[in-house]
Write a structure and sequence with these properties.
The structure holds two protein chains of two kinds. By secondary structure, chain A is mostly helical. The two termini of chain A are about 25 Å apart. The longest helix of chain B has 30 residues. Classes of the chains: A mainly alpha, B alpha/beta. The interface between A and B is large, with 80 and 80 residues.
Chain lengths: ~375, ~350
Amino acid sequence: MIVFKNYLRIAKTYIHIIVIYSVIFIGISVIFSLNNSQNNTNYIKENVNIAFIDNDHTQFTSCFKDYINDNATIIDIDNDEESLKDALFFRKVDYIMIIPKSFTNDFIEGKDVSIQTMQVPDAYNAIYSKNLMNKYLNTAHIYLRAGIRIDVLSQKVKEDLSIKTKVHMNDPVDNTDLNSVASFYNFSNYALLAIIIVVVSMIMVSFHKINIRKRNLVSALNYKYLHFQLLLGNVVVSLLIWFIYVFMSFILYSHVMFSIHGLLYILNSLCLLMFILTFSFFVTKLTDNRELISGISNVVSLGCSFLGGAFVPQEYLGHFVLNIAHITPSYWFIKNNNMIASLCEFNFDTLLPIISCMIIVLLFSLFFYILSVVFNKMRSNAI
Amino acid sequence: MMLFWTLLFPLILATLFNLAFSHLLDEEQFINAKVAVVEINENRDFNNVLDELSKDSQNQLLDIQYTTLDKAKELLNNDSIDGYLVIDKDIELTINKNGIAQTIIETVVDHYYSTLNTYHNIYELNPQSIVNDIFKDANRDYFKEENVNHSDLTVVYFYTLIGMNCLFGGFSSITLSTKMEGNLSRQGTRIAISPLPKYKIFLSTSLAIFVVHYAKMLVLLAYLIFGLNVSFGHQLSYIMLLMAIGSIVGISLGNCICCLLKTSEDTKVSVGSFISILCSFFAGMMIIDMKYLVLEYFPLAAYINPVSLITDALYSLYYYTTYDRYFFNILCLLLIAFVLSFISIIGMRRKQYDSI
């Protein structure tokens, strides 16, 4: 196993790259998975963010503000046009509401008053939220016409509007953590592709220097055995990197990972690993140029991740993109992760689509393995 | 290889951005809440409310179908509706998950009850007023809307890409500066003993790098505008000026790295790409909220980050009608370019070798 040992010796010199990459990627994955998780067990009102600019400052407007605060979130933003418009563009607020001077007086006197708002065209949240605000003002208006005293007005309106409908949540399933784990593994698609292709191909390139290749070819070692040892080296190094990832998922989401769901995530990820492995092996058969390899690694990892839905969830991608994505294993891997997350019962019917996705990914790896063997043969003949 | 990183890679990345983000904002568009209604006891008033809200109009809130309880449950399980209402003595809502559509349905029922309550209250307060039809005009819209134009958030991703590629101009200057070092290349040795002043050599090589890099930037811009239809506003000349200054910043950054670091070319290139990627990250290339967060909490960090400044300048051209912010960003970029070039010239001058 002299070739294998040598492989590991070279791998050791890349240990710092592996560690730095892993730390960065795992850090991002954690942020990413926390960002994408949401709670689904209780009914929660949709949160609308509003910038509330009060130029009137009366008791009525402050009660109105309290009402808004109960039904939405008021975001404090400096009252200058640039800050407000920036907040709107980056969707920190859904709309901006500006109460004009002497609004309260005009409103009580029944004049034709209006509140100016700034918003993104056709935003769903804004339309809904304005309905809510109009309700408050309309109710207040009715009381005023009925001749209510101003000091009890706000209290009456508040009383009426605080009635809440009973809402039932159908079969609450707590899949918050399952979704987080799915996001974590979805992101791993990018991380594993990027790290493993670079590391494995850099090591393999060392064996491809023309003199070393010639020496290996004339040695007594059987060519197939040599090929096998190199592949074994790749397997060990890739498994090690993969293991860091899986280990992190156990630390972060232990109760999900110690279940059948966890097992499925791991198996699925292992299938992807097989693909990455054979693909990196294939890349080194294509070229010995280190810069070109790092270019290929970047384009393939980013390309597969963008198209497959590792960054932007698959449900937000267009049909056209998803159709192209079918030719990347990442698509099947990520689709599978999402299916695992929504799995409730385990039987043959529910597991079949998951297993088929895994098989598709394995077929991709078989394809690239065959390609690399063919290329290898061609190149050996060329020497 | 240089051509790959500074020309092909941004083009590929832009294409990927375009594919991935083109449908991202569709979710924001207005769609109505689909609701099934199960009537156990008839409630005429409430039915009227529902009819009113499901009228076919531009702002139609609800899409309603009357059905049986079993059918409603089935529809909910298939995700064909957002929720169903059971009208008995009380009205109750059943849903599967949280979302804006569910919130709208709930709000409709809330409104119904609160109106009912208002009616009772007023009856107690002033029975006479009920007769006076005070409920007329009870659905006024108090809001005067102003829609902001140019609100497509995803353009920022492409702007950060332009910013990043400006900094990638540094790669060429790193390669070239390394070739000009007397101790690193034969060519450099020859340049070092030539009588030509250092600043002339520095300026002429920088100019050559600039011309080539700027041409690549224009290709990227043309691809974004004509190939991917990314919106940039209408001030093309301002954008080209910005890209020129951005490229100068990138090239000066490369020169500066070369003067400050005494290591191999590979390490310098790695440092250069690390700085570019880090700047792009804080400008919002990976997570778009980052740009806003930095601007909100550490504005100083945004003013010294060239990618952030370039992104912000492009954003202000796209979103604002005034140019104040654009020129402020340009000014910051020029300052950065000046400081970086100053450092590199200080580092280069008086460099002498007794023997190589």
